[in-house]
Amino acid sequence: LFLALTAVTLTSLLVTVFLLTETYFPKKATVEREPVSSEPPASSQKNNIFKEMLDVLKDKVFAIYILASTLGLSLEFLFGEYGGIRLHNEMETQPLLTGLPWFGDVSGVEMFGNLKMENTFLVVLIAPLIALLTRRLSNRSSLLGGLVLYAAGFAVLGVSTTPWVLLLAMLVVTIGELMHIPVKQAFLGDLAPEDRRSSYLAVNGISFVGSMQIAAIGVFVGGFLSSWVMSVCFVGVGLISVVLFGRILPELERRQSGVTDAPAVVKMEEIGPSV
C-alpha cells in the first residue's frame, strides 16, 4: 500500500513538472526604490503574513465560504475520530449481511474498517457516473443537494449499529461527497483574484485545521452524550453548512460567470438571501 502511494505521489510530481505549464505571469511594475541596507527582521515578515491573511478574510464571501467548508469537512473528520470509538463500544459482533452468513461476522472495529474501505472503492468506481449524472444539475443543486446527502449519511453512521444500514449510509455519504466537492472546489478557484490566488489558497487551509479541531472536540463531547444526540449534532453541523453556502451562492455564481470583478471586500447587503 505504501509503495502504491509512493508511486502515485511520484507520478503526480512528474506530471506537474513536465506536463503542466504556467498560465499566470504577473506584470512587473518598474518602480524605483531606495536601496535597502539589510533584510527585514523576521518579526516584520510574520506581521506581513498575518496582515495578508487578514486582508483576505476581509472578503466576506470568502470568509463565509471558509466557515461553511470547515463545518462540512468536520463531518468526515468527526466520523473518522468518533465513529470508530462508537462502533467499538456499541456494536456487537454480528453477520455483515443478515441472511447471508457466508459474508462472515464483523465486530465494531472491523465494521469501521469496512466502511472506510467502501468509501475508498466507491469514490474510484462511481465518480465518473456521478459526474455524468450531475451534468444535468445546476451548481446550486449539486452543492446543496450533495451537502444534504452528506450530512444525512453521517447522521445515520453516527447512530446505527446494523451493518447493512451502515453500508447503505456510507453509499449516501459518498454520493453526496462526489456531488458537492467538485462544485465547491470550482467556486474556490473563482473566488480568488488572479493576483492573490496563493494567499486565498493558503487561508483556505484554515478549513482543514478547523475541521480537525472540531473533530477533536466532538470526540471529547461524545464521551458524555448519547449517540442519538451526536447524530443530531451531525445533522445540525451539516444544515448550518448548507445555509451558509446557500447564503453566498448568488455571489459565487456571479463571480463564476464573470459578472463581477471578484473584489477583495464584499458588503453583506450584496449577498443574496439564505435558503
List keywords for this structure.
275 residues, mainly alpha, two-stranded antiparallel ribbon, 9 helices, 1% strand, globular, disordered C terminus
Short description:
Helix content is 71%, strand content 1%. It has 9 helices and 2 strands, in the order αααββαααααα. Strands 1-2 form a two-stranded antiparallel ribbon.
Report on this structure.
By secondary structure, the chain is mainly alpha-helical. Strands 1-2 form a two-stranded antiparallel sheet. The protein contains nine helices and two strands, in the order αααββαααααα. The radius of gyration is 22 Å and the shape is globular. The longest helix has 31 residues, at 60-90. It has helices at 2-18, 42-57, 60-90, 108-133, 139-157, 163-191, 197-204, 206-222, 227-257; strands at residues 94-95, 105-106.
The CA-CA distance between the termini, in Å, is: 43 Å
Strand content: under 5%
Any idea what the shape is? Answer: globular
- Low-confidence segments, given as residue ranges, are 260-275
Major sheet, described briefly? 2 strands, antiparallel
Order of helices and strands: HHHEEHHHHHH
- The number of helical runs is 9
